Amino acid sequence: MEFVDLLDENRLPLGRTAERLCPFVPGEYRTVVHVCVFNSAGELLIQKRKADKKLWPGRWDVAAAGGVSAGETSRMAAEREFEEEMGVSLDLTGIRPTVTVNFGRGFDDFFVVVRDVPLTDLHLQEEEVEDARWVTLAQAQDLVDRDEFVTYPKSFLQFLYDMRNQFGFTE
Fold first, then answer.
1. CB burial string 116-144: b at 16+ within 10 A, e below
2. What gap in Å lies between CA 75 and CA 62, rounded to an integer?
3. Which of 153, 129, 130 is nearest to 140 (CA)?
4. What digits encode the pLDDT tens for the residues 15-53?
5. Where are the alpha helices (DSSP H) in the chain?
6. CB 141, CB 154: distance < 8 Å
């Protein structure tokens, strides 16, 4: 059973935890993370979710994502999720989330970094990830148009691509 820390609307800890997938009550929030890895050519590493996943089955998404477990920081969760799903260690020391998107039940921290990770180095998590590849912005937006990508607005994907070379978001 996986637990998450509960937060208030200001991201302050409530001093309680809850089971990760249990229903939340009003005033309780949690944190999730997304890891957006770009290579030096400006391509985004994406993964195809397994067809039997509960959320967004069979769709493409950014390299890694998941919930922040109780006691973790979002950076720790981003590193853990990337290693679990992609099979490669990713050091985010000194990196803060590039952007946080609020959603109905919490906060979604997006980490945007530039790393040249060879696809041959990836060891995809068999239970969750079907495939991985590098894509240009046009290719990612085409996947959105074909309803094959998680439902990010195309303008949000553009924003992520734009943020990849901003001060503080690269090594």
1. ebeeeebebbeebbbebebbebeebbebb
2. 16
3. 153
4. 999 888 788 788 999 999 999 999 999 999 999 999 998
5. 74-86, 137-145, 154-163
6. yes
